[in-house]
Structures are given as C-alpha cells and as structure tokens.
Specification:
The complex is a heterodimer of chains A (326) and B (289). Chain A is mainly α. Chain A contains 14 helices and no strands. Chain A folds into 2 domains: 66 residues; 196 residues, Orthogonal Bundle (MetI-like fold), CATH 1.10.3720.10. Chain B has 2 domains: 62 residues, no CATH class; 224 residues, MetI-like (MetI-like fold, Orthogonal Bundle), CATH 1.10.3720.10. Chain B is mostly helical and 289 residues long. The two termini of chain B are 19 Å apart. Chain B is globular, with a radius of gyration of 24 Å. The chains are: A mainly alpha (326), B mainly alpha (289). Chains A and B meet through α1, α2, α4, α5 and α6 of A and α1, α2, α4, α5 and α6 of B.
Chain lengths: 326, 289
C-alpha cells in the first residue's frame, strides 16, 4: 500500500514539476522590460529542452569520445591503444561482422515482409484487413525482453527423451531430423539469424502500417489506366504501385536500419552475447557493466557512433523532403 | 477503405490465404507462451502447448502461475513501472511541446541549424551518453548528497532527454500545419506567447500530443537499459524482473511466461484502445505528406 502511495506521489510531483517550471520561467521573463521580453520569449520555451539535450545527450557524447582515449578507470591517457586493442582482437572483428549481418538482413527482410503484408491486406476487404493488420502489428507493443521470452520458448531445446516444448524443434523432429540447441549454434551464424528473426517479427507491423497507408494514397486513376491497358495484378503492383510508394519504402528501410545498428536488448536477453552473437551495443554493455572498463567500453560505442554518423545526413535529408511537401 | 480494384477480385482468395498464413506465423510464438502460462506446472514441462490448444477441454487450465508471480514481487514491479512511465511520458511531452512551439512560431538566430542538429541526434545510440551521465549522478550523490541513482527521478530525467529529438520533431511537424492567422490574430489582441501556447497551441495540438504520448509510454514501459542503469534493483521495473527470471532457468518456462504476460497487459491495452493515434504518430514520423 505504501508503495502505491509513493508511486502516486511520484507521478504527481513529476507532472506538477513540468507545469511549474514553465510558469516560473515566464514569471522570470515578465520582470524584463517589454522590448527585450518580446524578443527573448523563445528562451522561456526552449531553455528546459536545450538544457536537457545538452546535459544528457550532447556533453556526455563528447565525454565518451574523450574517455575512449583513456584507460580502464578513465584516469590516464592511452592514445589509440583501446582502438588498436579492439581491431586486433578477432572477437571484436566477429562482432563487427555480426553487426554487418544484422544490417544486411533485417531492414531488407522487414521491408519486404511489410510491403507484402501491406499489398495483401489491401485486397481482403476492410473488416479482415483491420483484424489481420492488428495481429501483425501487435508485436510493436511488446518489449524486447518479453519478445525474447516468447522466442526463447519458441526455440526451446530439451534434452533427448523428453517431449519437445519448443515449436521449432518439434517441427524439426517431425521432419525426421534431431532437435538442436539452436541458440548455441554459431556455424554460419545460425543463432544470430534466429535473433534477427525476432526483430523482423517485431518490426514488420510498423513497416506494414506505414507502407500500407502509402499504397492507399496511390491515385486510383493510375491503377485504372493500367487495368484498361490489360496489365495483370503483378504488373500493376510492381510497375504502378511500387514505384509510387518507393520513397516511403526507403524511409522505412532507413528507420529500421538505424534501429538495427543499435540493436542490444535482444542479444542481452536471449544469449547474453555468448556463442558468437555479440554486437557493438552489447559489447559496450559487457565492457562497462561486467568488466567496468570505461576506456574500452567508450571506444566500442565510439566505433558505433562513427559507423552510424553518415545516417544522420540521411535522416536530415528525409526530414527536409518531408517539410518541402508540406 | 480498400481499393475497388475489380480485376483483382479473383486474387482476393489468394491474398486472404497469404495473409492468413502470415498471421498464423506471427501469432504462434505469442500464443504458445500464453497457453503455457495458463497450465499447471507439471503439464507445462512435460507436454507441448499445442496439445492443449488442440484439446482445450481435455487439459487442465489454471491461474496458479499468475498468482505466484504476483506473490513474488510482480505487483511491486507493476507499480514501479507505472511510477517510472507516467512522469517519463508527461514530462518530455510538456518540455518538447514548449520547444516545438519555439521552433515553429518564434524567431531566433540559428533556428534551422539547431533543428537539423536535433534531427541528427535521433540517430545517436543512447549508450554513447549513459556512462558519463551515470558517473555525474554518482558524483553529485557523493559530493552534494542528492540521491539520483536508484530513484525514479533519474529515469524520468534520462528518458525525457532521450525523447526530446523525436518528440520535438513530431510536434513541430504537426504545429506547422496549424493556421498561422489565428496566432497572428491573438497577438494583435495582445496575447503573450505564454498565453498563446497554453490557450491556443496546446489544445489544438492534442492529436499530435496523444500520438507521441502513446509512443513514449510504450517505449518507456518496454525499456530495459535505462531502468537497469538508473533505477536498478531497488525499484525493479517489469523488464528488469523479467530478465532476471529468464536468467534463472530453474524457474521453468511457466513462471517466465506468466511474468511476460503480466508485463504485456498494459501495453496491449494501450495499444489496442489507442491504435489509431499510435498509427497516426508513426505516419507523422516517417511518411511523406
């Protein structure tokens, strides 16, 4: 009971603080002379956001980059040693390869499945469409941790002689093969691909919903004209609809790409980075929380920041285009 | 509304079938865990869940696992999660709405540059800032005696900061569509920016605020990393407890399953009841036009 009260109190304070803050800022501004006040009222609106972003996002980012040139406890300078250590460690090269595989597989598959689901659901009638879409979209609301339990159960392995409880191994054994401890098999990176399946499962709903809304805004006349010319459904989809929604497909692709480069929770929850499934963001976690190596952990995440930085440009570009169309 | 593409009608059966297969594949893993959580522990470990699915009357159903979960701390975690999530949704929403207002309607130097910077920040992984933030909080704790880590407050602050870029972006995109004449008229009538924001812009932005609120609510509710780093064991949230449970293989699948579904109930309710706003938010963030 005390916990509930404390929780409620915490919520109340959190909410009140946000309102009070702006009230106070404007009160402060109102003491300024009229002319200055009119020109500087943006300060009252922007300051809290700017302080948050600078203190919690920007300054720490630079601190991390600085620490990446320091030792385990962030006391002494070590130059490029952390980076040299990383790039001469075959384990780290495997991690980079894993990240690369994630980037190669997940965005493409997610967009492909999403487009297929969007195209198919467009033709089943409004009632079925909304039910089907909700069911495919539903995983979007599931946490990475809960998704991991769901899929760990799906991939579950039991010692021989006991009944299978994992669906994957049940299917495998019914086909006459022997069951496998899937998440421990790193041959051909099978276990990494199984982790990727979880993220595809989570994200297809997003890709479907966004692409589906683009398909629905394709001008009817273009489709009717193609029909009159005797185009078959495949031609209509690939020649008429797809080119018109391509911009949307690409923007979904980029969004998923950014998400996948930072992938972390799934690896933590399902394998803890064991069996050669680690990725950059997880390696950061391991270096800091398991080994408390500040320097090397900072170097790992700096590598990720450098790899992801070109995508910033893409993101700004997409945002610009969106604004132009407004 | 589906498009009346009459020639495609023959294809409808194929589409329905294709969609049905996709939906079955998409639902099977979740269904498996749900069924397992509702069975007695003796059965959950010895017979596969699909046996119960195909023979629902011939098997035993029970809520034991849920009762056990609630008695072993899941209820506390539920409360903790609410206490982290609700302020961590409302705080950034208010802060971002104010900032979005400045970015949309007020003039200041370098506006476009700072906005581009904000968009660029969306790409940066949050891990790149966490260690310095954590260490500063520990430093403040030692030197000034203000407790941050292990409290809800630290999670609110960090979640608010990380929400800023996307929130400001979505809200500004929406505010740009509001009629400017209305604001000009209010200004002529002598309203201050403060009044215009609270009385005019904020009420008119409710659809965008709602979309982002749902987005942020789900994101914070489902977050593990920030909860782990800043709140930790003292006020363990659901994802934290769940991951612990998943790590202890002795616990058995059934209890993990029940824990998962307890953590899923709230997001699913939010999701299904407010799906329309959620979709609108997604579209505002990534679809042109």
């Amino acid at each position: 009971m005390g916990d509930i009260l404390f929780g409620l109190l915490a919520i109340l304070i959190g909410v009140a603080a946000s309102y009070g803050l702006y009230w106070l800022l404007n009160l402060l501004l109102s003491f300024l002379p009229e002319r200055i006040r009119k020109k500087s009222d943006w300060l009252a609106f922007l300051t809290p956001a700017a302080v948050l972003v600078i203190l919690i996002l920007v300054a720490p980012l630079f601190q991390t980059i600085v620490w990446s040139f320091m030792d385990d406890r962030a006391r002494n300078w070590v130059g490029f040693e952390n980076y040299i250590d990383l790039f001469t460690d075959p384990r780290f090269l495997q991690i980079l390869l894993n990240n690369f595989l994630w980037v190669l597989v997940v965005p493409a598959l997610t967009v492909a499945f999403g487009t297929a689901a969007a195209a198919l659901s467009n033709q089943v009638g409004p009632k079925l469409e909304s039910i089907f879409k909700s069911l495919i979209f539903m995983p979007m609301s599931i946490s990475f941790v809960a998704a991991s339990t769901i899929w760990a159960y799906f991939y579950a392995y039991v010692p021989p002689g006991r009944p299978e409880v994992g669906l994957l191994n049940a299917v495998i054994t019914s086909l006459g093969y022997s069951s496998q401890p899937w998440l421990t098999i790193d041959e051909w990176h099978i276990n990494s691909f199984l982790l990727m399946a979880v993220v595809v499962w989570l994200q297809v709903g997003y890709s479907m919903v966004v692409i589906s809304s683009a398909i629905k805004s394709v001008p009817e006349e273009t489709i009717e004209a193609a029909q009159l010319d005797g185009a078959n459904p495949w031609q209509i989809f690939f020649r008429i609809i797809l080119p018109q929604v391509w911009g949307t497909v690409m923007s979904v692709f980029v969004t998923i790409l950014i998400l996948v480069m930072k992938i972390f929770d799934i690896v933590l929850a399902m394998t803890r980075g064991n069996f050669n499934t680690s990725v950059l963001a997880f390696e950061w976690y391991k270096q800091f929380f398991e080994n408390s190596n500040i320097g090397p952990a900072s170097a790992v995440i700096t590598v990720l920041v450098i790899l992801i930085a070109p995508l910033m440009w893409l993101q700004i570009q997409t945002a610009r285009q969106q604004e132009m169309l407004r | 509304m589906s498009k009346p593409v009459h020639v495609l009608r023959k294809l409808n059966l194929g589409s329905t079938l294709g969609m049905l297969i996709l939906v079955v594949i998409w639902s099977a893993p979740t269904l498996g865990l749900l069924i397992t959580s509702l069975r007695p522990s003796s059965l959950a470990e010895t017979s596969p869940w699909w046996e119960a699915l195909f023979n629902p009357l011939g098997t035993v159903w029970t809520l034991d696992a849920y009762e056990k979960s609630f008695n072993s701390g899941m209820l506390d975690s539920l409360i903790n999660t609410f206490a982290v999530t609700i302020p961590a949704t409302i705080l950034p929403l208010m802060i971002a709405a104010n900032a979005a207002y400045a970015f949309t309607f007020l003039d200041f130097k370098g506006k476009e540059f700072f906005f581009a910077l904000l968009i660029a920040l969306m790409v940066i992984p949050l891990q790149s800032s966490l260690i310095p933030v954590l260490r500063s909080m520990v430093w403040i704790q030692r030197n000034l005696g203000i407790q941050f880590t292990g409290t809800y407050v630290s999670a609110w602050i960090v979640h608010s900061a990380f929400a800023m870029p996307l929130a400001i972006y979505i809200l500004r995109n929406y505010m740009m569509t509001l009629p400017r004449e209305l604001i000009e008229a209010a200004k002529v009538d002598g309203a201050s920016s403060y009044q215009i924001f609270w009385k005019l812009i904020l009420p008119m932005s409710i659809p965008a605020l709602a979309s982002f609120a749902i987005f942020q609510f789900l994101w914070v509710w489902n977050d593990y990393l920030i909860a782990f780093v800043f709140v930790g064991e003292q006020k363990a949230v659901m994802t934290y407890r769940l991951l612990r449970l998943l790590g202890q293989y002795g616990q058995g699948w059934r209890d993990v399953a029940a824990g998962s579904f307890i953590s899923l109930i709230v997001p699913l309710i939010v999701f299904f009841s407010l799906q329309r706003y959620f979709v609108r938010g997604l579209l505002a963030g990534s679809v042109k036009g």
